[in-house]
Design brief:
The complex is a heterodimer of chains A (411) and B (225). With 411 residues, chain A is an alpha/beta fold. Chain A folds into 2 domains: 205 residues, Glycogen Phosphorylase B (Rossmann fold, 3-Layer(aba) Sandwich), CATH 3.40.50.2000; 182 residues, 3-Layer(aba) Sandwich (Rossmann fold), CATH 3.40.50.2000. Helix content of chain A is 46%, strand content 15%. Chain A has 16 helices and 13 strands. In chain A, the strands form 2 sheets. A 6-stranded parallel sheet of chain A has the order 2-1-3-4-5-6, sandwiched between helices. A 6-stranded parallel sheet of chain A has the order 9-8-7-10-11-12, with helices on both faces. Chain A is globular. With 225 residues, chain B is of the alpha+beta class. Chain B has 2 domains: 113 residues, no CATH class; 82 residues, no CATH class. Chain B contains 10 helices and 2 strands; from the N terminus they run βαααααβααααα. Chain B starts with 8 loop residues before the first strand and ends in a 7-residue tail after the last helix. Classes of the chains: A alpha/beta (411), B alpha+beta (225). At the A-B interface, helix 2, strand 6, helix 15, helix 16 and strand 13 of A face strand 1 and strand 2 of B. Strand 13 of chain A pairs parallel with strand 2 of chain B, so a sheet runs across the interface.
């Protein structure tokens, strides 16, 4: 049983709690819809949330919408605009966006119309609600993006699609926008039993690093993320260069998998390679979306995790690095603020200079690296495992199906 | 009620959700206005709700207002004053709110520049939604309760020992309300439980403290996990 496996990591009381909470939802159909099965944090978490909910007796399902390259070009632009980039999306791309949703709604109509609760993830499938006329259940828009300061014209366009939902969910309170329905705040989570997070033998970690020419006996800083301007990979290289002057043995890894819905990755990857030039201690790695054990090994080989984002939804790669007992140097943005606590689980920084300073600070104090890494792992165990997120989704479903009052007594 | 007629104590559990109110403020004056307009669920969330939220356990401040005043508004004095406000000392959340407003008003008179200080990051007013559900567990005497406490989820501890303060204000918590049926043993346990300060510790530590009290008073090894 999957639940038994999670009980060993998260605790039996946590699983018992889930079982009790799921009772009123037994047999209910809960459908999740997003835009990709591979790559990105949403697909990763759905891969475990759905089977876990099924084991709890809920008829949980996961559907993926299909779209053309133009559709993904549009939704990527939308994603960037929600994160504050002033992107003007051409009218013809918006037409593709709406038409793609209309076609997908037709294909998924029967599954969505009768579902008790439908979770629509991110902007890609947001208009589906408008094309499922006779829906009977509750619809929730789950926004995984830092939409705290969206580019207004694009938000205004998207808002018309999400306003009719019964509720929305954001990762942080600061990401919410004025809406005519309740806005829940549920941080995301990681799956401790996935290939990306499960314990690995050291020989596998060393072999993976060796394959990339990384020396596991020298200091290593690792940033795992998509090649995206908001992740500031070039800023990481600047930080590395500033620190390298003091720590000549330093190495840095910038590794990321592309996602099927991210056409911009190639451009940023090329920029990062150019910034790395011919420095043999900078490893810029484009990994396939299923390279989970490789990512796991790189994070475990690291002395320090890095996530120098200038915009961030939640930053699940931060959570992953912390779960592996690594202190993290992260940008002072989004969900990184919730996870990286200065001097406890890592450091928040605002510039390449700040990142380089903290690299030097930590690498000169191995005991602090160990102590902060231990705290980071325990912090994740208590707060950011998939079991906690599932609990909050179940609570939300119970709340929606019982009328969203302040207090719901099921006894 | 005699010991014989005491009903079984049914263990309940709860889950708490955070709901954004959409109200973001940047100055102390705006904070005052927000607190004045806030309903009980919002005050409850910012004083107690964070115990069940994903937060770093070694919290510098025990309520969200104090943390924001210190870290974002950078007023150490008011932050300290608000931090020591113990919600247990107030008969209800309305009175607690009045105390908070008094502190803000006094500080605004004392330090006029705070009328103009603006934080970079807003304070986000939130409210809580709580779902309460039954478990299969129940006990019929204090010894059974003592054995069960170390195994309870932290949210169950929250429900019976903290949330109960709103439901059974005279008894203080659900455990004490029930233990009062058990004569001298019950009274001793109630007295000890009344001394526990749940406001300044994480729920895991609170659970350990409660388990230790049962173990000490009942003589068994009920605290062992």
């Amino acid at each position: 049983m999957l639940l038994d496996e999670y009980a060993r990591v998260a605790g039996e009381d946590v699983i018992e709690h889930l079982r009790q909470l799921a009772r009123p939802l037994a047999g209910k159909r809960l459908v999740n819809v997003n835009s990709t099965r591979e790559g990105g944090g949403v697909a990763e978490i759905l891969r475990k949330l759905v089977p876990l909910a099924q084991e709890l007796g809920i008829d949980a399902q996961w559907e993926v919408i299909a779209g053309s390259p133009e559709f993904y070009e549009c939704t990527k632009a939308m994603h960037n605009a929600l994160q504050g980039n002033p992107v003007r999306i051409p009218e013809e791309l918006l037409k593709v966006y709406e038409e793609t949703n209309r076609a997908n709604a037709e294909a998924l109509h029967d599954k969505l119309a009768d579902a008790d609760v439908v979770f629509i993830h991110d902007p890609q499938p947001a208009p589906l609600i408008g094309y499922v006329a006779r829906r009977t259940g509750r619809w929730v828009w789950r926004c995984h993006i830092d939409a705290s300061q969206p580019y207004r014209p694009v938000w205004k366009y998207l808002r018309d699609f999400v306003a009719p939902y019964d509720a929305s969910v954001f990762s942080l309170a600061g990401f919410t926008q004025a809406m005519p329905h309740p806005e829940y705040v549920i941080p995301p989570s990681i799956d401790p039993l996935s290939a990306k997070n499960i314990d690995l033998p050291w020989h596998e970690v060393a072999a993976t690093c060796h394959g990339f020419g990384i020396d596991v006996d020298r200091p290593l800083v690792v940033q795992i993320s998509r090649f995206d301007h908001f992740k500031d990979p070039v800023g990481v290289i600047e930080a590395y260069r500033l620190a390298k002057a003091y720590i000549p043995q330093l190495q840095v890894v910038l590794a990321g998998g592309g996602a099927a819905d991210d056409p911009e990755g190639d451009v940023v990857f090329a920029e990062t390679r150019a910034a790395a030039a011919d420095d043999p201690d900078i490893h810029v790695l484009a990994l396939p979306p299923d390279a989970h054990r490789t990512v796991n090994a790189l994070q475990r080989a690291a002395h320090i995790g890095m996530q120098k984002s200038t915009r961030e939804g939640f930053g699940l790669t931060v959570t992953e690095a912390m779960w592996k007992g690594k202190p993290v140097i992260g940008g002072d943005v989004g969900g990184i603020r919730l996870q990286v606590i200065d001097h406890h689980t890592g450091f928040r920084v605002n510039s390449p200079e700040g990142a380089s300073l903290r690299i030097r600070y930590l690498l000169h104090q191995p005991k602090k690296i160990r102590a902060m890494g231990w705290k980071a792992r325990e912090f994740v165990r208590e707060n950011f495992l998939v079991t906690r997120q599932l609990r909050e989704y179940l609570t939300l479903c119970v709340g929606l199906l019982h009328g969203a009052t302040e207090r719901i007594e099921l006894v | 009620m005699s010991v014989d007629s005491a009903p079984p104590f049914s263990i309940r559990d709860c889950a708490l959700l955070s709901i954004a109110t959409g109200w973001r403020i940047y100055t102390l004056g705006e904070l005052r206005a927000g607190v004045a307009a806030a309903d009980d669920e919002t005050i409850y969330f910012h004083f107690w709700g964070s115990l069940l939220q994903p937060r770093f356990e070694e919290r510098e401040f025990n309520n969200d207002f104090a943390a924001w005043i210190r870290h974002d508004l950078h007023d150490a004095k008011l932050a300290e004053q608000v931090a020591v406000v113990d919600p247990r000392e107030f008969p209800n959340l309305g009175v607690l709110k009045s105390e908070l407003l008094d502190l803000i008003d006094e500080r605004l008179v004392e330090a006029e520049y705070l009328h103009f200080s603006r934080s970079v990051r807003p304070f986000e007013f939130m409210r809580a939604q709580i779902v309460v559900f039954g478990t299969d567990k129940s006990v019929t005497n204090p010894e059974q309760l003592g054995e069960l406490v170390p195994q309870l989820s932290v949210s169950s501890i929250f429900y019976h020992f903290i949330d109960a303060r709103r439901r059974v204000p005279t008894a203080g918590d659900d455990f004490s309300a029930w233990l009062a049926n058990f004569g001298e043993t019950g009274t001793r346990l109630c007295d000890r439980l009344a001394q526990v300060d749940p406001y300044f510790i994480p729920l895991t530590i609170l659970r350990d403290q409660l388990a230790a009290i049962f173990a000490e008073e009942l003589g068994g090894d009920h605290a062992a996990r």
